[in-house]
Write a structure and sequence with these properties.
This protein is mainly α and about 425 residues long. The chain has 18 helices and no strands.
Length: about 425
């Protein structure tokens, strides 16, 4: 439709929102999720706490982040993802500041397990991917890849920096620095740039007219290059499909392995007499290489089915973890970082992209919220399990071998995954 008024519509704001969620996610990954394991050796040495004891707060953090998923989904549906991102990341920033003053183990449970856990539950994956799912349909895979790549950038840049801060200024001042950085990236930048939905600004997903979704419904499934659901599924409808449960199982396996590795690999490599800087840099390199996997999956996901890409990425993770088990030289450490990083990066993009592609955007936050407890209960115990097995055997061979077995199982589940059949629409 043409107009003679000369009015030019404003640029598509989805890209600005994407920058906002990328800044927030980089902070969440670099300041919280991937940072805790770097403090584990120093805090253990200061207080003479066992590694299994210090793994407990991370497990609590992960459990809170997952079990509160249904509540987070409802809060996001009611108040919008932006308010949740701002409010609960402010709580997380105060938690990081509190960690600089801990003297007993329950302080760590409070400041990291509970306060940072609330930040993750209400202010990270569910609200941020909801924002992406609201703003993008045709380019959803690319947007998810770019957004999740920012977490890899945070994981690549921050661990060596944190290691230097711990070495140079002590772990207490390192926590103070992270609190300020988290406030800047997630609360200030995120709050300024993020908007909930294109409709709030009079725009449409992908910057195209609203007929895009209707065109998608009218286009035969076999004519689409990559599957996109023509209907929006409710929570109940989605929960009755095998596809959702297989995606949940894959996500559980992915987080089971990566939670174990990010929590314990620095301590593992230091036990093998590698320097603290090299051990932290290996974690940073793994997360940095995940950027390649995230970007590759984001762009490839617009042309190839995600379930086919998952086989490639999971195989890379299996080979990478096996290299870590044999890490008696720097070559194996770098091989682990590259293979596992690319594999993890690709898989972390596939999970939310598959959920959006299979079940739509209207009820996305609620569907993801209700899947979170299942994923959490399966995957949350891996850091404590690894710490317990290390304390019992003096070695990480057994827990890392279990991670190899779990990821191998994921390859089998991926082969079984298919898009769900359309629900009977009665609403």
């Amino acid at each position: 439709m043409t107009t003679t008024t000369g009015f030019k519509p404003p640029p598509f704001y989805g890209w600005t929102t994407l920058i906002g969620v990328m800044a927030a996610y980089a902070g969440l990954c670099g300041d919280i999720t991937y940072a805790y394991g770097l403090f584990l050796p120093a805090m253990s040495e200061t207080f003479h706490w066992s590694r299994s004891a210090l793994s407990g707060p991370y497990v609590l953090f992960f459990i809170i982040g997952g079990l509160l998923g249904p509540a987070a989904g409802m809060a996001i549906a009611r108040f919008g993802p932006r308010k949740n991102i701002i409010s609960f990341n402010l709580i997380a920033a105060f938690g990081l500041l509190g960690l600089s003053q801990v003297n007993t183990i329950w302080h760590v449970y409070l400041f990291f397990g509970i306060m940072a856990g609330l930040g993750i539950a209400f202010g990270e994956f569910i609200p941020i991917t909801t924002v992406i799912n609201n703003w993008f349909i045709r380019r959803r895979s690319m947007a998810m890849g770019l957004f999740l790549a920012s977490g890899g950038v945070g994981g690549f840049v921050f661990p060596p920096l944190i290691s230097k801060l711990i070495t140079g200024f002590g772990w207490r001042w390192a926590w103070v620095y992270l609190a300020g950085q988290h406030l800047l990236l997630t609360v200030i930048l995120g709050g300024i740039l993020i908007r909930n939905r294109p409709e709030d600004l009079g725009q449409h997903p992908d910057g195209t007219p609203e007929t895009l979704e209707q065109n998608l419904k009218d286009q035969p499934v076999h004519r689409r290059p990559v599957y996109q659901t023509p209907v929006d599924w409710t929570v109940g409808e989605a929960m009755r499909t095998p596809a959702l449960w297989l995606i949940m199982a894959l996500f559980s396996i992915l987080l089971f392995a990566t939670n174990m590795l990010t929590t314990h690999q620095v301590a593992y490599l230091q036990d093998l007499n590698f320097s603290p800087l090299l051990s932290a840099s290996a974690l940073g390199l793994m997360l940095g290489m995940s950027v390649i996997g995230r970007l590759a999956c984001g762009f490839l996901g617009m042309k190839f089915e995600g379930r086919h890409l998952a086989i490639f990425f999971l195989t890379g993770m299996v080979l990478g973890i096996m290299a870590l088990i044999q890490a008696r030289g720097v070559f194996f450490i770098y091989l682990y970082s590259v293979l596992t990083g690319i594999g993890f990066g690709g898989m972390i993009v596939l999970m939310p992209n598959l959920l959006g592609a299979y079940f739509g955007r209207r009820h996305y936050s609620r569907i993801v919220g209700w899947t979170a407890p299942v994923v959490t209960l399966i995957s949350a115990g891996s850091p404590t399990l690894a710490g317990f097995l290390f304390d019992a055997t003096g070695s990480y061979f057994l827990p890392f071998s279990i991670a190899v077995g779990f990821v191998s199982l994921g390859i089998v589940l991926t082969i079984l995954l298919r898009p769900p059949r359309f629900p009977v629409i009665s609403r």
